[in-house]
């Protein structure tokens, strides 16, 4: 009896959790195709049967009347996320390789303490960091600029890259390094030619985490930019007025989350094929 009830219980829990996760997306999708009358007329979810679908909300996010143009904020977010993720992966991989293969010691501080120091940067509340970042960018003339946002985002993503890659490099046998050095490769060439090709799964997972955190950042973009630069999360929040246009807000939210969904599907496809075997520990 228990063997028969367990699959029923398991799939029931999975179905309920799937509905819980997909519910907000379904609500946003249906709302994005409504107009004001359909939204104010009560909960309706079946197009053509309960309401007449319209593209008003989607037109508004591309510069239509009563909306906001999300193209420039989308491009700004893409530039900041891609640049910061690439820099974080490059620097984080080098730091993680050194922490994985060499032993550092300064008094009681060891490699594990250095790794924890990197991770601890993500523990601090953002409000603690925003004031130093503000004065640093103001001193460098980088307030309200894309390079300034990239620098701040790198500082936020670098701990993630180090944390993921240290764990992955620790799982790569040291014999690979030794064989490369016996062939005459100095340490940096060993890292580039022997270790990185075997680290693509870890790099992919680290890049996914960096992209998600970088793309979703709102607080620092909101506090460190004013009029010249606006990211996509800022543009979406700008629609949330005293009487928010829910159809436009829903379309903008779906447009903003679409790149992350595509990224997650791509990484999940690699995981299902085994191409990222061992990358998630």
From TrEMBL:
Kindly give the Gene3D superfamilies that the UniProt entry links to this protein: MetI-like
Localization (cell): Cell membrane
* Ranges of residues in domain ABC transmembrane type-1: 74-267
Sorted keywords for this record are: Cell membrane, Membrane, Transmembrane, Transmembrane helix, Transport
Q: Which GO terms describe its biological process?
A: transmembrane transport
Q: Where is this chain primarily localised?
A: membrane
Sorted alphabetically, which CDD domains does this protein's record hold? TM_PBP2
Q: Where are the transmembrane segments?
A: 12-29, 78-102, 114-137, 149-169, 203-226, 246-267
Q: Which PROSITE patterns match?
A: ABC_TM1
Q: Its GO CC terms?
A: plasma membrane
**Hey, what's the signal peptide range on this chain?**
none
Q: Which family does it belong to?
A: Belongs to the binding-protein-dependent transport system permease family.
* Name this polypeptide is given: Carbohydrate ABC transporter permease
- What is the native source organism of this protein? Streptomyces chartreusis
């Amino acid at each position: 009896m228990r063997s028969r009830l367990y699959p029923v219980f398991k799939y029931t829990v999975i179905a309920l959790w799937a509905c819980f996760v997909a519910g907000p997306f379904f609500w946003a999708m249906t709302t994005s195709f409504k107009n004001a009358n359909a939204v104010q007329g009560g909960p309706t979810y079946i197009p053509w049967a309960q309401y007449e679908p319209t593209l008003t909300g989607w037109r508004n996010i591309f510069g239509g009347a009563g909306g906001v143009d999300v193209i420039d904020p989308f491009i700004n977010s893409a530039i900041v996320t891609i640049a910061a993720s690439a820099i974080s992966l490059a620097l984080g991989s080098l730091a993680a390789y050194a922490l994985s293969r060499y032993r550092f010691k300064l008094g009681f501080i060891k490699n594990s303490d250095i790794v924890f120091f990197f991770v601890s940067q993500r523990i601090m509340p953002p409000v603690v960091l925003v004031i130093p970042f503000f004065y640093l960018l103001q001193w460098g003339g980088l307030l309200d600029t894309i390079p300034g946002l990239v620098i701040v985002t790198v500082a936020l993503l670098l701990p993630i890259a180090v944390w993921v890659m240290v764990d992955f490099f620790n799982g790569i046998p040291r014999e690979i390094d030794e064989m490369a050095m016996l062939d005459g490769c100095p340490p940096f060439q060993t890292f580039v030619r022997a270790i990185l090709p075997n680290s693509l799964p870890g790099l992919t997972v680290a890049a996914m985490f960096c992209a998600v955190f970088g793309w979703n950042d709102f607080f620092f973009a909101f506090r460190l930019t004013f009029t010249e630069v606006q990211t996509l999360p800022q543009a979406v929040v700008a629609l949330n007025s005293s009487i928010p246009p829910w159809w436009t807000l829903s379309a903008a939210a779906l447009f903003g989350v679409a790149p992350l969904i595509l990224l997650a599907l791509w990484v999940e496809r690699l995981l299902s094929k085994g191409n990222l075997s061992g990358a998630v520990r």
